[in-house]
Specification:
Largest sheet: 10 strands, mixed
Oligomer: single chain
Strand content: over 45%
Distance between the termini: 38 Å
């Protein structure tokens, strides 16, 4: 069999693997135990590099080079609603399972609501943002959730900050709901500022991260700042205090912090707000604050992302991707010659974490791991100009929304990264309600909000198995 025929039958073969194998020129030792050897992959590797005479073990990256794609034959038919409810009620009015692979809960909510981190919050009465009930959805059932109200004040950087949010732990995962009426208004001098709480990505359930918004004035070094709050003791820690932000030549617009709060990427504006002035890197543990060019060694870089606590990703000339180990200063080229995604030309679509999509001109799609450079073909899936893709919080799954010509959600899909499997669901009957705001409900479920002509409100929850 010819090499081309082999490659077509076996799918994408990772370039990094081939280069490593060619460099060794013989036996490639496995880095970790694998349960079996994929014989076809070995044949393809031998033919492609032309230098092998002995069998070689297959790496994990190689085995994950093709992602299986399944489009379900049974469509979802959006459940109609005949329930009658009192004001402020919430109910799971219907549940269904599609081919045993997608479980759906249809919720009807009489009143305003929000959802986040697997919890639905229903307000009691119009605009009564501070009082309501919290629910989890477990086994097709609504379960009321007990939360604690956190209210405290503290002084930081010359301002008094108020903190007001509800807090709980759901299945070991922190849940925070900032009271909506605590959002910062356009401030007069002397007014208090409200801090926004969010969970720490390091898994610590005893502390939260607070974002401190500053007044709209040039008389400060930053518009937002970060501190840590211990919810048991009301102790606020200014963990950025070692960084010399006060002497920054530009106004700090945003601070992107690593999960363990040890590294930060700081984006700045010039004083006239006429575009970004520069970007800084901060090693929080030692108080090191330098222009990002001192770290990358290049003036023209863009798209800075902390992939983990020790790895920085960035692009150059909008075509090449690089990763940098912040401990060793070692640089690796992740990809070359790929521009940022456009509908006309395809390219790299960044998802906000360590994964990105490579969309080819024929609309085929590869999942790229920015930390390793591995690209995995989603075999048979086509990315149209009406497709959206969104990574979940723990970076384990990606959901896909495909809109139809009427801008309705015609398809809903989920890619499980570790399982190397994607399922796509057809949808029917969505025209009975106006749908909006598809988003992650938690790390496993996708939520879609809806409203009918009678202004009844709904929330659909999808879990792909």
């Amino acid at each position: 069999m010819k090499a081309l025929e082999l490659s077509e039958k076996l799918g994408y073969i990772n370039d990094d693997l081939i280069e490593k194998a060619a460099a060794i020129g013989g036996l490639v030792k496995r880095r970790r135990a694998v349960k079996r050897i994929v014989v076809a992959a070995l044949i393809a590797a031998i033919v492609l590099i032309g230098t092998f005479s002995t069998a070689m073990a297959v790496s994990e990256d190689f085995r994950a080079a093709v992602i299986a794609f399944f489009k379900l034959s049974t469509p979802e038919t959006v459940a109609p609603d005949v329930t009658k409810m009192s004001s402020g009620d919430i109910t799971v009015y219907s549940s269904s399972s599609i081919d045993g692979l997608v479980d759906i809960n249809y919720l009807k909510i009489d009143g305003d609501y929000e959802y986040n981190d697997g919890v639905v919050y229903v307000w009691h009465g119009d605009n009564d943002y501070a009082n309501g009930t919290y629910y989890c959805v477990v086994d097709n059932t609504l379960v009321p959730l007990h939360t604690e109200r956190i209210e405290t004040s503290f002084t930081c950087r010359g301002y008094t900050w108020d903190v007001r949010f509800d807090y709980a732990v759901v299945d070991g995962i922190p849940y925070i709901h900032n009271i909506p009426d605590s959002r910062m208004p356009e401030l007069e001098e002397g007014e208090n500022l409200y801090a926004y709480a969010s969970t720490l990505k390091n898994g610590d359930t005893e502390k939260v991260l607070l974002t401190l918004p500053f007044p709209h004035s040039n008389a400060r070094s930053y518009s937002e700042y970060l501190v840590e709050l211990d919810i048991a003791t009301d102790t606020v820690t200014d963990f950025l205090s070692q960084c010399d932000f006060e002497n920054m030549p530009y106004l700090i617009e945003n601070i992107a912090i690593s999960d363990n709060l040890s590294k930060a990427i700081v984006t700045c504006y010039s004083e006239d707000y006429n575009g970004y002035a520069t970007t800084y890197y901060c090693d929080v543990t030692v108080g090191k604050l330098v222009p990002i060019s001192d770290i990358t060694g290049l003036e023209a870089t863009d798209n800075y992302t902390l992939l983990d606590n020790e790895t920085l990703f960035y692009t150059t000339d909008n075509t090449d991707g690089w990763r940098l180990n912040l401990q060793t200063d070692e640089k690796y080229q992740v990809y070359s010659g790929l521009k940022a995604y456009t509908d006309a030309d395809g390219g790299v679509q960044f998802l906000g974490g360590k994964y990105a999509l490579v969309i080819n001109t024929d609309r085929s799609v590869r999942l790229m791991n920015l930390a390793t450079g591995t690209q995995s073909l989603i075999d048979g899936f086509q990315f149209t100009v009406q497709t959206g893709a969104y990574l979940n919080a723990d970076q384990s799954k990606i959901y896909f929304i495909c809109y139809n010509d009427n801008l309705e959600i015609g398809n809903l899909g989920l890619l499980d990264i570790s399982a190397a499997k994607m399922i796509l669901l057809d949808r029917e009957g969505q025209e009975i309600r106006r749908e909006w705001n598809p988003d992650w409900f938690d790390n496993n479920r996708i939520a879609v909000s809806a409203r009918d002509d009678s202004k009844n409100q709904y929330l659909y929850l999808y879990e792909f198995n």
